[in-house]
């Protein structure tokens, strides 16, 4: 496969995609290939547009030129995002890759808007488009090249989980559609004298704008703080639970500082009667080993769980049974009993799912649980905190 040939030829140790240097090499290779292919396509389409007097083909040509510039930005994005951490950016510069993808998306939109204007002028002042076999064949070749480039960028983007290269892949696939529309316009000129070139050019331009908008939407999401990868969430929770004396986990928060650059924190429930020194050794080991295995920075906060007394265990199990009646309540955590004498406080957090069934007022949920406990255990007061998932 030509893809594997390029990767194995230009990238040393190509299988180590978790390595920052290898990942950077993938990004630069994708950018260089993008520049080469798009410059070839620009030359082909500009030549065809000149021969056929087609505004649609000329629009498509300059779209490819902007794609070449986008590939150059992608290269700089990978270079800059790979800079080491400094005093001002202690978690590195990985988010620059997202910014470079965003710039590419805006450039795509700009080209589309410019050719909406050109196509509209062409509709108002139509000129004849002439079909010639050789330009038509060249246009078909350009479509095949774009299909290959889209596939190439997708394979690399998926392999290294790069939003910039995935955006380039979508952009190239959009170009396949626009170039196909242009080819149809050119072919139609052989059978009709209707001036449809401007209309086809408008369709092409609108599709370019739509592609750019879609790319903006996809690339801005991680900058705004999108939900983390479910597989990463599952891996962290499963690995933390694999250590001795950890009874449960909650409040997992993952901050994304760029592809492969994450900081995570999680709360781990432990028996309240375990030695502080012993649990510290376990937690310290878990933080170190999981951080290394998943290539992130993990902090584990410990929450002592005290349900060893019969009465407390009874109430705890009663609450667990109660919350199963409500689909929007997922779990409870940080359960503890505070106070002396007969009147005591039950303190715990309730995790509420993001659901249409969930009451908008958190007091409704706390009142339901408090009322139930008060009926069976009138000497206990409930202090409940409503919690939610961040992952």
TrEMBL record:
Gene: yeaB
Chief location bin: membrane
Domain of life where this protein originates: Bacteria
SUPFAM superfamilies, alphabetized: Cation efflux protein cytoplasmic domain-like (SSF160240), Cation efflux protein transmembrane domain-like (SSF161111)
Record domain Cation efflux protein cytoplasmic: where: 228-304
Residues that span the membrane, as ranges: 26-48, 96-116, 128-149, 194-216
Location(s), subcellular: Membrane
An example molecular function term from Gene Ontology annotations: monoatomic cation transmembrane transporter activity
Identification of the protein by name: Transporter YeaB
Entry keywords, A to Z: Membrane, Transmembrane, Transmembrane helix, Transport
Bilayer topology term: Multi-pass membrane protein
Domain Cation efflux protein transmembrane: 32-224
GO cellular component: membrane
Record-stated family: Belongs to the cation diffusion facilitator (CDF) transporter (TC 2.A.4) family.
